[in-house]
């Protein structure tokens, strides 16, 4: 079970508080999304554009750095980590990304720093048997900017003792080319992330724009097995939601992935009604919690090998209940 951005249902995502809570609640792995600062430090943010997850807009000294960039083919406006040094990033404070759904988290706005990858690993090393599940965010973009993510990622993991095939580490990416390069550089386990949408997944690999839909075919999964150990897939690719609002019959994705020797990790489970299938919601209040335990049990019954969750304590309870049932 992977604490998604820490315990992001309990504290603002990608903060040391969030990661600590995830560990204390029983997560097997904590998941930092990694981007780079201008001076090459890896920090944990969901995106390199940080207006929604920090108080950067309140810092008048950084007002002129607001800009518009093309990130993986899409125009994005805001403030970007690669335009700030680490010292400048440390002057910012984290903010809750979805305050309407998580007002308790928003009460911590302005109190928590943006952590470095080193700080996250130092935290994890203080606990027994905690793994790390970093994601390289926009790796081709950062490589083209002269700030490749992979060398500092591998160096930092090694320095903190996370090295070798048996280390409790998964490295994940939505891109293919950087995973292929990582396969040549490390024995750590690699995860190909797969979106539910069918758009292009890697604009740089061999000069092609290929579709995520091609990756979930038996042939695509067999190709992934040549450079990765697992697939991390959007939930709807495993159990689609039917017209009645309930989870439907499983697709054959898990079966085909297992046939190629790949584990399957599903993302992302969240307890709030806004993120649950209609049949599992507790009320019309989007912020109230519904029956995420039943959702997790259905996916475990479909054969998944792991899952990402924003509320790790609920994930532990659902997993343990499922295992105790003997299904």
How much β-strand is present in the residues? 15-25%
CA gyration radius, whole angstroms: 19 Å
CATH homology superfamily name:
Phosphatidylinositol (PI) phosphodiesterase
By DSSP, the count of extended strands is 13
Distance between the termini: 18 Å
Q: Please bin the fraction of helical residues.
A: 25-40%
Task: Output mean pLDDT.
Answer: 95
Strand order of the largest sheet: 7-2-1-13-12-11-10-9
Broad CATH class: Alpha Beta
Q: What would you say the CATH architecture is?
A: Alpha-Beta Barrel
Query: Major sheet, described briefly?
Result: 8 strands, parallel
Structural class: alpha/beta
Number of domains: 1
What would you call the shape?
globular
SSE arrangement:
Elements: E1 2-4, H1 16-24, E2 29-31, E3 33-36, E4 42-44, E5 67-71, E6 74-78, H2 86-89, H3 103-106, H4 117-125, E7 131-132, E8 135-136, H5 139-144, H6 150-159, E9 170-173, H7 177-185, E10 189-194, H8 212-215, H9 218-224, E11 230-234, H10 253-259, E12 263-269, H11 292-301, E13 306-309, H12 312-325
Helix pairs in contact: 1-4, 11-12
Written account of the structure:
By secondary structure, this protein is an alpha/beta fold. The protein has one domain: Alpha-Beta Barrel (TIM Barrel), CATH 3.20.20. 28% of the residues lie in helices and 16% in strands. It contains twelve helices and 13 strands. The strands form three sheets. Strands 7-2-1-13-12-11-10-9 form an eight-stranded parallel beta sheet, with helices on one face. A three-stranded mixed beta sheet has the order 4-3-8, covered by helices on one side. Strand 5 and strand 6 form a beta hairpin. The mean pLDDT is 95.
């Amino acid at each position: 079970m992977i604490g998604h951005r820490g315990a992001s249902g309990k504290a603002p995502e990608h903060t040391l508080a969030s990661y600590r809570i995830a560990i204390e609640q029983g997560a097997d792995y904590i998941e930092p999304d990694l981007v780079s600062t201008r001076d090459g430090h890896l920090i944990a943010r969901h995106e390199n554009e940080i207006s929604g997850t920090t108080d950067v807009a309140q810092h008048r000294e950084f007002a002129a750095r607001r800009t518009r960039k093309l990130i993986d083919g899409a125009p994005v406006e805001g403030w970007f980590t690669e335009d700030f040094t680490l010292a400048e990033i440390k002057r910012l404070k984290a903010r809750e990304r979805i305050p309407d759904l998580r007002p308790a988290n928003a009460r911590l706005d302005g109190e928590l720093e943006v952590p470095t990858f080193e700080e996250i690993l130092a935290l994890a090393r203080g606990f027994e048997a905690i793994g790390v599940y970093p994601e390289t965010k926009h790796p081709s973009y950062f490589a083209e900017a002269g700030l490749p993510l992979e060398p500092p990622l591998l160096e930092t993991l090694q320095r903190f003792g996370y090295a070798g095939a048996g280390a409790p580490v998964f490295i994940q990416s939505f891109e293919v080319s950087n995973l292929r390069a990582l396969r040549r550089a490390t024995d750590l386990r690699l995860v190909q992330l797969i979106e539910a949408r069918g758009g292009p997944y890697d604009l740089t690999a061999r000069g092609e724009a290929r579709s995520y839909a091609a990756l979930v075919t038996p042939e695509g999964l067999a190709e992934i097995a040549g450079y990765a150990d697992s697939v991390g897939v959007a939930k709807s690719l495993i159990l689609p939601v039917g017209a009645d609002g309930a989870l439907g019959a499983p697709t054959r994705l898990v079966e085909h992935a297992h046939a190629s020797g790949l584990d399957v990790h599903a993302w992302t489970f969240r307890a709030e009604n806004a993120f649950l299938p209609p049949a599992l919601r507790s009320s019309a209040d989007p912020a109230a919690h519904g029956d995420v335990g039943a959702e997790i049990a259905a996916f475990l019954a479909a054969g998944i090998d792991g899952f990402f969750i924003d509320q790790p304590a609920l994930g532990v309870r659902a997993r343990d209940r499922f295992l105790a049932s003997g299904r």
